[in-house]
Amino acid sequence: MKRKWFGFLVVILSLSVMLMGCNNEESAEETSLLDTVKDRDLLIAGVNGELPGFSYLDSEGNYSGFDADFARAIAAAVLGDASKVEYRPLSSKERFTAVQTGEVDVLTRNTTWTLTRDTSVGLNFAPVTFYDGQGIIVPKDSGITSIEDLEGARISVESGTTTELNLADQMRKHGINYEAVVYDSQDAAVAAYESGSVDAYTTDKSGLVARKAIMKDPSAHVILDDTLSKEPLAPAVIGGDDKWFDVVKWVVNATIQAEELGITSENVDEFKDSSDPVVQRLLGTDGDLGSQLGLSDDFGYQVIKQVGNYGEIFERNLGPDTKFGLERGLNGLYTEGGLMYSPPLR
Amino acid sequence: MKKDIADVPTPFWRNKKVIPFLAQGIFAVIIAISLLFLFSNALDGLRQMGISLGFDFLKSSASFGISESLIDYTPESSYGTAFLVGVLNTLRVSFFGIIIASLIGLVVGISRLSNNWLVNKTASIYVEIFRNTPLLVQISIWYFAVFLPLPRIEESTRFLFSYFSNRGSAIPWFQATSGTLVWVLLFAVGVIASVIVWKLRLKKQIETGENKRPGVWAIGVVILSLVIAFLATFQAPFNITLPTVEGRSFMGGLRLSPEFLAILLGLVIYTSTYIGEIVRGGIQSVQKGQVEAAKALGLKPSTTMRLVIFPQAIRVIIPPVTSQYLNLIKNSSLAIAVGYQEVVSVGETINNQTGKAIESVTIMILVYLTFSLLTSFFMNQFNKRSQIVER
Q1: CA distance, residue A20 to nearest chain B CA (Å)
Q2: Taking the complete model, does pTM exceed 0.80, yes or no?
Q3: A98 — contact with chain B (CB < 8 Å)?
C-alpha cells in the first residue's frame, strides 16, 4: 500500500518537473502584445466610461473623450485605423487586474503614475498625458471654504485610487478627523454626494470639473482651491513587454512632438512634402522609426491624420470651447510654460 | 504443450485488485498535474510582471481611511489591522443579520400557515416579492432609493426618540455604568442557578407526581440574583442615552450609518423570505396524526406546538436554515456596492493599493471559509441534539 503511494508521488513529481520545464521554455519565446493586437486587428482599451471629457458614452453610443482619443491614437499607429478599438469600461478597483490578466491591451483610464504601481502592481507607464491634482468639491451653502473646515465631515471617495490615499495623508497632516465613505463606482460616490449623505466628494480636479458640469445644479457646488496632491495621469501597459510598452510610449510622444512642430490633423498632408528632417522622420517620409517599433513607418502620420496632435486632443475634449473649459496650464507645451515635452523622435 | 487455462496468470489490466488502484491513481495524477499547472502558470505570470508573493505587506501602514470600525483604526494602522476591521464589519452585519432574519423568518413562516386571510396573504406577498428579485438590486434600492433620499441631518425625521437622516440614523442605546459588570456577572450566575433549580424541581415533580412549579422557582432565582445585584451596586444596570443632533453629527445613542442599514436590511429581508419558507415546510412536514394524537391526549394548542410539532419540525428546518445562514454571510460581500466596508471591500482596496492580488484573495477566502465552517459546525452540533435518539 505505502509503496504504491510512493510510486504515485514519484510519477506526479516527475511529470510536474517536466511541466515546469516546458513552461519556462514557453515564456522565453513569449509573444508581445503588439503581435497579439495586430493578429486580432483590434485594440482592447480599458477606460473609465463614467468620466465626461475623458471617456464617456456619447449620445450616439460611442466612447469619446481625452482617454478614448489616446486609445484611438494607438489603434491608428498599430492598425492604421483609429476606429479599431474596443473599449472596456473598468472601475478603479478592476483596472489593474484587467491589465495584469491581459483582458485589456492598454489602460487609458485617468490613472495616476506611482512607484508602487510601477513595481508591486507590475505596470509600465507611458509618458504623462495629463498633469492633474486632487481637489475637493462641496456644496456652496455648506460654508466650507478650505480643507480645515472639513473637521468631522463624511467624504466620499472611490475605492483603490490614489485619491483615497492622498485624502488620508492630507487629513493626517492637518490633524483633521473625517470619515471616508468608499464606493466602488464613481457614479455611486457622486450620487451619495449629491443627495447630501456625505459632505464632500474628492477626486482629481479634472474629474471634479467634469462631474460638476453634469450635476443637477452645477452652480450649487464649488471646488475648493486646495490641491491635495500631484496626479500625473498616464496610459499604462503590462510590465515586462518592452516592445508593446515602446509603442504606447512613442505614440504619446508623437502627438506631443506633432503639436510642437505645428502639425495638425488638417495640415498634416501639406507637411508631407516638408524638407525638415524632423518632420520627415515623424511622418515616416524619411527614416525607419516605425519599423524599429514594429509599426509601419507612417505611424506618426496616421496618428496625426486620424486623431490629431496633443493640443487638438486636449482642446476637443477638455478645452475652453467645451463645457469643462479647462486651461492648458501644466498641460501646455514646454515652450509655453507647460510640462509637455517629447524626447526626440530619431 | 498445452497450458491449463487456470494456470495462465491474469494480466494486471484485468486484475480486479489492481484496476481500482490504477484508476484512482490516474485520477489523482490528473488532478495534481492540473493544480500544478495552474499554480506554476500563476507564478510564471507574476514573475514576468516582476511581482513577488508574500505576506510581509500586512505590517506596513495602510494609509487609507475606513469610515466604520469597531476597533481603533487610523490611516497609520497596518494593512493587517485594516483587514481585521473588515472582518469585524463582516461579522457585525452577519451576526445581527442572522438573528433578525431568523426572527422575521419564523414569524413569516408561521404567518403563511395562518387561517387569517390578511396575515396569510401579506406573508405570501412579502415572500414572493423579496425572494424573487436579485439581492444586489434590493440592496441598491434600499441605499439609493430609501436611505439616501432621507432628509438632511438638520431636518432629520424624529420617531420614538430616534433620528433618521441621510447621514445616518441614531437610536436610543444602552450605556454601561460602573456597576454594569457586577450586574452582568450576577445575572449570569442567576441564570445558571435557575436552570439547575428548574431541573431539580422538574425531577422532583416527575418523582412525586405533585406540581412542584419548576418555572416559578427558576424565575424566582433570577429575580433574586438581580435583587442582590441592585443591593451590591445601588445603580441601574445601564443608562439609556438618547441621541441628539449637534451640528452635522449625532451625539449619544447608537449611530447607524446608511451604508450599514442598507446592507443589513437588504440581507435580512432577502434571507428571511427563504427562512420563512423553510419554517413553513418544516411545520407542514409533521404528520397530521401527530396533532390529532396530541389533541386526543388533551394537550393545549400552544403545548402541542411547543412540545409536539416544533421538536419534530426543527429536525427538518435546521439543515436548510444553516445553508441560508452561510448564504447570508457570503452575500454580505455585496456591501461594496453601497460603500459599507466589510472584508471584501477592504481586501479589494488593499489589493489595489499594493498589487498583492493573490495574497488578498487568499485572506478573503480564508475569512469566509472560517466563518462558514464555524457556523456550519455550531449548527451541526445543534442539529445533532435535535435529532431523534434511536434506541
Answers
A1: 7
A2: no
A3: no
